[in-house]
Amino acid sequence: MRAWFNHVWPVFMWQLKQDRWRIAIWLVSLVAVTVLTALLFEGLYPSEGDRQRLAHSVLNPAITMLLGPAYGVDQYDIGAIMAHQMFLFTAVATAIFSILTVTKHTREEESLGRMELIRSLPTGRLAPIMATVVHHVLTFVVLAVAIGSGLSLLQFESISAEGAFLYGVGLSAIGLFFAAVTALCAQLAESSRGTVGLAFFVLISAYAIRGLGDVSYDDLSWWSPLGWILETRVMVDNRWWPIGLVLLLAFVLTFIALWLNARRDIGAGLLPARQGPMQASRWLQTSFGFTVTMQRVSMIAWAVGLFIFGATYGSVLGETGTYVAEIELMKEMLNIEQLSGQALIEEFVSMLAVIITIFATVPVVLSMYRLTKEEKLDRLEPVIATATSKQKLMITHVAVAVIFSIIVVSAAGIGMGILGQMSVDGLQFSAVFETLIAYLPAIWVMLSLAALCVGLGKWQWMTWVYLGYAFVVVYLGGALEFPEWMNHISPFEWVPRLPVETFTLVEVISLISVAIVVTSIAVILYRRRDLTG
Amino acid sequence: MTVLQTSHLTKRFGNVDVLTGVDLDVGEGEIVGFIGPNGAGKSTTIRILLGILKASGGEAKIFGQDVWRDAVDIHKRIAYVPGDVNLWPNLTGGQVIDYLIRLRGQTVDQDRKQRLMDRFQLDPTKKSRTYSKGNRQKVALVAAFSADCDLYILDEPTSGLDPLMERMFQELVLEKRAEGKSVLLSSHILSEVEKLCDRIAIIRDGAVIESGTMSDLRHLTRTHLYVETDAPLVLPQSDGIYEWTETDWGYQFQVDRDVLSDVMQAIGQAGVTKIESAPPTLEDLFMRHYEVDRGDG
């Protein structure tokens, strides 16, 4: 045993020392967001009537797909609202935290050669990975207790202590599950990027599978651990056993990861790395071709991902009619005489289009940020040292990101359009496709902000905050009843909402102008500033 | 007494044989140089010695214990410095050094650590992300040399150091030998190896092809000669003569050991006015093996 697990404790303490701020920030944010939204909901929906109205507005397939099924709708109290609106969303955030920290302490440590330094000391062979396991178990125990106590302390009638703690434990279970998944991915992939990519693939699949299952195919959600924790029906029925299922699977995956880690050579991945060509092609020798080639794999991956994302949404559009027919109250709410089934569907298409395009902005911003990443890794110096100017480099990256945006949005539009046309009679492919494409100018505004951050060489979080804000406006803006001006800060709110609204050129031109002006400033700033390395 | 010993060590990655038979030994109080071209298997051998990689065959022992099975025990008494040191970006050099010493189960001798940092001119209060390659290397060197160890395994430890620091490193290694400690030094700086090492092992294509003291190795090779003579120099045979060049003044060439006496007779007959001879440097030895390597390939 000593040969395997010696010195787990000091390695664990060392990981904790590196992570102290990171963990503190994540834990505090997760707890704060949870407790504050509960308070916010209490303030926004004080009466039974308010809550019932909210209940009716969220009972549609798009929301079910996004948030999971709503339980306890007949008694839609603050507890049930929290469970429905926030549980899945927070669980995904917890999973992302796990994926990033586990990768950092496993494959990244190994690929940078730091693992070798540790292993040359009297540490057990599995000490680093075991320390990471201990690290995450403890972190998530703290998270469960903090969220449980936080929600309990609110003393809401609708949130029992049991519900509060089940909520916290559910999030932690998902955190541990994805820690285990990532630990396993770290054995398979040969780089930290590969590990993160594989783990995110699992997360996105888990999310999509339960989305489809929740909307149309009942049993399908049982194939996703995110579906399992939703089955706890937290705050409503408080079922604990699905948590056991998640933890059991997490345990098994951790065990497999440890076993593989013990068996393989350091530095090696079980998925082999391929060999590449001998020479650079003509295309690769150009600045533009080089940049595209560097991003090719992620372009394809995101395009496929968004195609599936769009297709999943498209496939459930047909369910909208069923939902409306089933729920008497909803008919009254939406005033079905005025709004035929067709118009209702179009309403959903336009809402989904915003969500999809906000997601599609992520790879576009990441693509722009590649330029700073290259700079940080000292890979720009040899490029700048040739006859390539800084502004040309910047403009090339912007151009590639613009192409990237067109590709991913088109992929989502094609997916949603084809499946939408198949699932709904009379819904035209072009109507859906145009709705998504209309959001491109808003994406370009985001892109120009990202370019500005690159030009400044700092404050890159700004773009993410702004994009996060745009998401919150769409996602919770309705439930949180934001004033109109707060919505208008988001560029996505400026786009004409096809197919419901008519296309107007003014907004589109203003958005594009803003994007061009900001990008020009970014290029000038970039040309003037020092490169860091 | 032998501190480190391997016999017929082999390692396969997938279906590639990286090591085909490494025989190596380091005695107590001895500095052994471990040289060979890139990709010959130096680092793989060292990783096996550290118990990080598992050998596919053969045997490797340090302090008489198996490097894989008893890795934890062995590591308490050895120090390792890699050639490419990467540190934890948000912690300082001082923190990293203490951590690495602590992990060995030893308490940090702050005096010794301070002396070493002074000698290497390392500022331990800086975050690791701001260190240059040379400074990261110094962190690893200080961490290794401030601990109490019996065997030092150094894999290109001076890459990135300036010549002054390199000399500091050489002094340290010689001090350790004076204390009776052993060192396995893998390096591409052949003059450094030649200067420090008692014995040298040359690895090629995953096998140790030559090992011994510098003078042992020289016996196997050629002597450099430069001669000026009255009469034109005619050598009895061309076997064993290499890189023959005639200048206006004399002749320059290399001679294999077994034909040296015949060559000397011929030189004497030609009426020698000036003769210079030099033993082959390690670089010559190395280049010779390396060239053979390329010839084969």
Written as H for each helix and E for each strand, in order along the chain, the element string of chain A is HHHHHHHHHHHHHHHHHHHHHHHH
How many β-strands of chain B, per DSSP? 14
Q: Strand order within the widest sheet of chain B?
A: 6-7-8-3-9-10
Instruction: Tell me the CATH topology of the largest domain in chain B.
Output: Rossmann fold
Keywords:
heterodimer; A: 533 residues; mainly alpha; 2 domains; 24 helices; B: 297 residues; alpha/beta; Rossmann fold; Alpha-Beta Plaits; six-stranded mixed β-sheet; 10 helices; 34% helix
Describe this structure in words.
Chain A has 533 residues and is an all-alpha fold. Chain A is built from 24 helices and no strands. Chain A has helices at 2-5, 8-44, 48-58, 61-67, 78-85, 87-111, 114-119, 127-153, 161-188, 192-215, 225-230, 241-263, 287-316, 319-326, 328-334, 341-376, 381-384, 390-423, 429-437, 440-456, 461-475, 477-480, 484-488, 505-528. Chain A has two domains: 1-38 and 86-270, no CATH class; 280-533, no CATH class. Chain B has 297 residues and is of the alpha/beta class. Chain B folds into two domains: 2-213, Rossmann fold, CATH 3.40.50; 222-279, Alpha-Beta Plaits, CATH 3.30.70. In chain B, the strands form three sheets. In chain B, strands 6-7-8-3-9-10 form a six-stranded mixed beta sheet, sandwiched between helices. Chain B has a four-stranded antiparallel beta sheet with strand order 2-1-4-5, with helices on one face. Chain A binds chain B through residues 2-3, 6-7, 10-11, 14, 17-18, 112-114, 116-125, 265-266, 268, 272, and chain B through 13-14, 47, 50-54, 69-76, 78, 80, 82, 84-88, 90-91, 95, 99-100, 102-105, 140, 153.
